[in-house]
Amino acid sequence: MSDGRGTLVARMDGRWTRRLHVLLTTATVLFTLLLVGGLVQSAAMAVPGEPRGGAGFAGLRLPSAGVPLGGTLVPGVHAVDVRVEASLYDPERAPLLAGLFLFTWLPTVLIIVVALFLLTRITTRGLAGDRALFSADTVGDLRRIGAVLLIGSPVAFALDFGAKTVAAHLTVTDAWVALGDAVSPVAGMLMGMGAFVVAEVIGRGLVMLDELEGTI
Questions:
Q1: Where are the chain's structural domains?
Q2: CA distance 208 to 141
Q3: Cβ neighbours for 21, distance < 8 A, ≥ 6 positions apart
Q4: Parallel, antiparallel or unpaired: strands 57-62 and 84-88
Q5: What is the mean pLDDT of the segment spanning 188-211?
């Protein structure tokens, strides 16, 4: 009875591993295509002349004082805070703005692609069996994921902030740039620490398994 239950659990685990592997592989491909599309958009921005395909430096803050709100609010409603973002294009500084625009998205997408690739490699071992999954190679990949997220997230946030600050002062009068969403880098760093914790747990489990096998 117990052998039958163990076989059923093993089959279910293998099924979920295959599904997870397919999902991670699909996500890796999609984000890689997103990266390529972003590079194409940045290349289009770098060509002086009229903006092509609506390509512009996205996410730049405009002074809210110049934005009329009359007729857009329900009577009795007051705007407490107004934040306006625009995609701007300057043909005279097109190559410079295109280069700055890369720093606003490329580091983040690269971090995601690398993390997804490493996760896909881990699930590939899971398809090969438990011994391949719970191995020193998996521990190494988890630590790499942790390092990429823990270090890369604040670096990507700083590059995005710096690039938008420079671009705003080149294109907007009385430019100011808020720090932006600080939740994303914090979340990335927390996930990175989580990857280190999982790697530590698996690593210690492998040491205990080696000691147990040596005793037996």
A1: 2-215
A2: 20
A3: 120, 123, 124, 126, 127
A4: antiparallel
A5: 93
